[in-house]
Backbone:
């Protein structure tokens, strides 16, 4: 992985942080994006961070293109940043809905759009999206989250067909519940037993496996579920 450099969004905590550590340990370089990298700050000679709010689009295209220009060695994207909102649809304001889709769907599409010409020129690349079990099945109170994650999955499937001729592999990982800060602002979390959550470590291992397969093979999609799904309501 020494010749690899990944843009990782949401690298400051949870799943994105675990993936970042795994990639760094494997010898890759990581350019991390989040709003706040001090939770606590991850220090590594091959890790560079940018503090960016990905839900704000004013200058996003310019900022991402500048990062790519400054780091032409980037040859992959782990598009992971996101947050959850659950509840009856009528409880959300129009602004809530718009911000939610900006972050959880549109920002992934914009970053990918900015990176594609660069990867196509290199004629090599890997793009992994962080979907969810909510990409696969609509669930109660999940109108916003499920529709954003279904959308991301559709985007990933279509993109994969568009870019395979440029030697770019596209994958989406759909985990069930993972014990992260994701649940801090929600009214539920995984049950307390270790078997009630997928570990960040296992997701990062899956990422490394996907990336280290022969380049003739693409993992289109991978679903990871807790052995025993239990939801604890707060
Ligand atoms: N935890 C689960 O059960 C679970 C299951 C399936 C899928 N997922 C998905 O996994 C991804 C990561 O979630 P997680 O569980 O690791 O949660 P997390 O620990 O809360 O991490 C979310 C990451 O996204 C970043 N982020 C959020 N809003 C952002 C914004 N506006 N601009 C830039 N970065 C932003 C956060 O950084 P800052 O706050 O510093 O900006 C953080 O690094 C999400 O897409 C989530 O939907 C989670």
Residues:
């Amino acid at each position: 992985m020494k010749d690899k450099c990944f843009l990782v969004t949401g690298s400051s905590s949870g799943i994105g942080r675990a993936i970042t550590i795994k990639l760094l340990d494997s010898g890759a370089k990581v350019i991390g994006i989040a709003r706040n990298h001090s939770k606590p700050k991850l220090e590594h000679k091959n890790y560079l961070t940018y503090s960016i709010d990905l839900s704000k689009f004013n200058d996003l295209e310019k900022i991402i293109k500048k990062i790519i220009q400054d780091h032409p060695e980037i040859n992959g994207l782990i598009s992971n940043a996101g947050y959850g909102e659950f509840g009856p649809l009528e409880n959300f304001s129009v602004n809530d809905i718009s911000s939610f889709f900006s972050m959880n769907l549109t920002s992934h599409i914009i970053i990918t759009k900015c990176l594609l010409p660069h990867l196509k020129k290199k004629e090599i690349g890997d793009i992994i999206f962080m979907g969810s079990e909510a990409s696969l099945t609509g669930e109660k109170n999940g109108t916003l989250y499920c529709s954003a994650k279904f959308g991301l999955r559709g985007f990933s499937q279509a993109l994969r067909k568009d870019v395979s001729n440029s030697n770019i592999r596209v994958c989406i990982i759909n985990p069930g519940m993972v014990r992260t800060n994701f649940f801090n602002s929600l009214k539920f979390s995984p049950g307390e037993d270790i078997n009630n959550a997928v570990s960040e470590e296992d997701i990062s291992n899956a990422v490394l496996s996907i990336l280290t397969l022969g380049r003739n093979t693409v993992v289109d999609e991978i679903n990871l579920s807790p052995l025993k799904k239990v939801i604890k309501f707060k």
Notes: The mean pLDDT is 98. The first strand starts at residue 5 and ends at 9. The chain is about 35% helix and 20% strand. The chain has one domain: 5-233.
